[in-house]
């Protein structure tokens, strides 16, 4: 059928996006990202993917000025789209990690990162000491078949007390189970006094949907959410 949602998108883009979210083994997925690196930015431009912009804007808003001195870790940094948005908002000390060497190669060519390391999140710890970063971002990678929700404590470990964590996920049908699991984990960490929620911003036009089923109420887009948490300076004792 030529009409309908996602049909305005090039078939190749639709196929590549579907391939990422399809259940596959980790090595397969990392190889896929290596191959996707070359046309990734054109693809997300076609998708009108707004997460990097929205996440950076939210983080900059939460941040006490000035932010040029702040040290940030961009987890699952991909080709550096988040770094570009952060840089525009005055952040200058950016480190990135990604599981794909091909993506890191692209990120390196932007010249926006002081440091880039290969790291498969969920498989291995982040290559950073405890309480090292003023902020940690995970934009776009928290989703079904991607980074597991079990990584949250590791993200917290490398964040300074009082530092910020900026996370995003999608609210499209195929990611709802993951999103519920993520929100349960976020809430549990908040109740334990690990961090405090600053923001949970639902965004209707997150990116263009690639299929009819994934579209929010027939808009042709899928929705998403930006979360900002602040790591508690001192873990307070549970009452009761």
TrEMBL record:
Q: State the Pfam families in the record.
A: Methyltransf_25
**Gene for this chain:** Mettl27
Protein origin, superkingdom: Eukaryota
Signal peptide span = none
The Methyltransferase domain extends over 73-163
Matching entries from InterPro entries are given as: Methyltransf_25 (IPR041698), SAM-dependent_MTases_sf (IPR029063)
- Its protein name is MET27 protein
**Protein species of origin:** Alaudala cheleensis
């Amino acid at each position: 059928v030529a009409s309908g949602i996602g049909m305005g998108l090039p078939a190749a883009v639709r196929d590549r996006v579907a391939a990422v979210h399809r259940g596959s083994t980790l090595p397969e997925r990392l190889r896929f990202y290596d191959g996707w690196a070359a046309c990734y930015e054109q693809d997300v431009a076609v998708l009108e993917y707004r997460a990097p912009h929205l996440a950076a804007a939210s983080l900059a808003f939460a941040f006490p000025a000035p932010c040029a001195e702040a040290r940030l870790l961009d987890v699952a940094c991909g080709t550096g789209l988040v770094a570009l948005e952060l840089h525009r908002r005055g952040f200058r000390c950016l480190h990135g990690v990604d599981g794909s060497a091909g993506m890191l190669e692209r990120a390196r060519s932007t010249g926006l990162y002081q440091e880039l390391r290969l790291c498969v999140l969920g498989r291995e710890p982040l290559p950073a000491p405890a309480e090292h970063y003023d902020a940690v971002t995970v934009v776009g990678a928290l989703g079904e078949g991607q980074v597991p929700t079990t990584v949250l404590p590791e993200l917290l470990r490398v964040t300074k007390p009082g530092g910020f964590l900026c996370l995003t996920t999608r609210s499209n049908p195929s990611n709802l189970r993951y999103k519920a699991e993520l929100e349960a984990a976020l809430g549990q960490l908040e109740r334990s006094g690990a961090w405090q929620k600053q923001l949970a911003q639902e965004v209707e036009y997150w990116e263009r949907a690639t299929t009819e089923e994934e579209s929010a109420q027939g808009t042709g887009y899928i929705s998403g959410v930006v979360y900002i948490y602040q790591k508690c300076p001192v873990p307070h004792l549970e009452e009761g």
